[in-house]
């Protein structure tokens, strides 16, 4: 696993470069749904997926039933991607890592986080005021570094959750024996 590219590792972005027009309607609606970070109406989704609104509505209802999207409002009917579903999916895939792979990934990420802590003399990216660490010309560089630190922190948290779950499962098995 490369900790810099978990999407590539797990195939989360696979096929996004493919021509959407040649895909069946359900696949086109699904791919559009993956990008619904803001509430979006059925008509706009249908337009982006190059299908009729009734077709989009039918596929969106199915996606809502399995948790990929969630309805936000009824009139007009709008949907947004369900972040909880994608978090669950990612954690589920991380559980496939061996104990050694999990340990190695956590060690690598922890080393990288230590570099950020040292650079900014802070325990977390939220404790850093970017203006205190940059001149006007390199403010964007500091913001990018802090954004990377946020992402790194989220990855560590996910891997730690998987490790804790494994430890908890192991202790439950030992107590049952």
In short:
By secondary structure, the protein is mainly α.
Rg on CA atoms, Å: 21 Å
Mean pLDDT: 86
> Helicity range of the residues?
55-70%
> What characteristic shape results from the CA principal axes?
flat
For the largest beta-sheet, the strand count, sense and barrel status come to: 3 strands, antiparallel
Element pattern in H and E = HHEHHEEHHH
How big a fraction of the residues is strand?
Answer: 5-15%
Please identify the structural class as seen in this structure: mainly alpha
Oligomer: single chain
Tally the beta strands.
Answer: 3
Query: How many H/I helical runs?
Result: 7
User: Which strand order do you get reading across the main beta sheet?
Assistant: 1-3-2
Intertermini distance: 33 Å
* Low-confidence residue ranges: none
Structural account:
- This protein has a three-stranded antiparallel beta sheet with strand order 1-3-2.
- It has seven helices and three strands, in the order H-H-E-H-H-E-E-H-H-H.
- The protein has helices spanning 6-10, 25-33, 42-49, 53-65, 83-94, 99-120, 139-176; strands at residues 40-41, 69-74, 77-81.
- By secondary structure, it is mainly alpha-helical.
- Helix 2 (25-33) packs across helix 3 (42-49).
- It starts with 5 loop residues before the first helix and ends with a helix.
Spell out the blueprint of helices and strands.
Blueprint: H1 6-10, H2 25-33, E1 40-41, H3 42-49, H4 53-65, E2 69-74, E3 77-81, H5 83-94, H6 99-120, H7 139-176
Antiparallel strand pairs: 1-3, 2-3
Helix pairs in contact: 2-3, 2-4, 3-4, 6-7
């Amino acid at each position: 696993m490369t900790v810099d590219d978990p999407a590539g590792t797990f195939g989360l972005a696979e096929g996004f470069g493919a021509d959407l027009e040649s895909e069946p309607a359900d696949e086109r609606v699904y791919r559009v749904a993956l990008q619904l970070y803001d509430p979006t109406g059925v008509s706009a989704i249908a337009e982006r997926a190059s299908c009729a609104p009734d077709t989009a509505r039918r596929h969106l209802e199915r996606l809502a039933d399995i948790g990929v999207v969630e309805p936000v409002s009824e009139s007009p009917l709008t949907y947004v991607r369900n972040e909880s579903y994608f978090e669950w999916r990612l954690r589920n895939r991380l559980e496939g890592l061996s104990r050694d792979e999990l340990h190695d990934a956590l060690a690598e990420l922890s080393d990288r986080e230590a570099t950020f802590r040292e650079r900014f003399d802070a325990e977390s990216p939220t404790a850093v005021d970017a203006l205190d660490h940059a001149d006007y010309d390199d403010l964007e560089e500091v913001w990018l570094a802090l954004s990377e630190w946020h992402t790194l922190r989220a990855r560590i948290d996910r891997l730690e959750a998987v490790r804790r779950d494994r430890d908890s499962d192991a202790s439950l098995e030992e107590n049952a024996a």
